Amino acid sequence: MVEELGERAESVRNRAVDPSIDNMLKITNDGRKLALDQRMINLCSPMMKHQRFLCVPTGCLIYREETTDIHGTQLVFCDLSTPKNDGSHSRYITAYGISCLKKAYPKMK
Fold first, then answer.
1. Which of 27, 35, 63, 64 sits in a 20 to 30 Å window from 11, CA-based?
2. Do residues 99 and 54 make contact, with C-beta atoms less than 8 angstroms apart?
3. DSSP 71
4. How far apart are CA 90 and CA 13, in angstroms?
5. Secondary structure percentages of the chain, helix, strand, coil, to 5
6. Are 96 and 53 in contact (CB under 8 A)?
7. Residue 88 to residue 69: CA distance in whole angstroms
8. How far apart are CA 60 and CA 68, in angstroms?
9. What predicted TM-score, i.e. pTM, was given to this entire model?
10. pLDDT tens, 67-107?
């Protein structure tokens, strides 16, 4: 997948593709998605055990446990997904939220 990003960038640089079809902004955004979770680029990609997407809920839970005495609040922000017009979020953000909740509340089904 990373190799494909390089090939796309080369095509853009050589003006071999119309900018409305592909451009460096699209390629850069796809690279950011790939760095977070390859399934954001290819839905058929396997779930990796140690990908960044799965590490954040664990980190949040550890921080919560270390700071329970102050009863603080955590805000986790991901700028790679926005709400849809009907107010719902992408499948990716929903999966992330469920993962966080299951780690925070293990008895949750």
1. 35
2. yes
3. T
4. 32
5. 55, 0, 45
6. yes
7. 34
8. 12
9. 0.58
10. 888 877 777 776 666 666 776 666 666 666 666 667 666 66
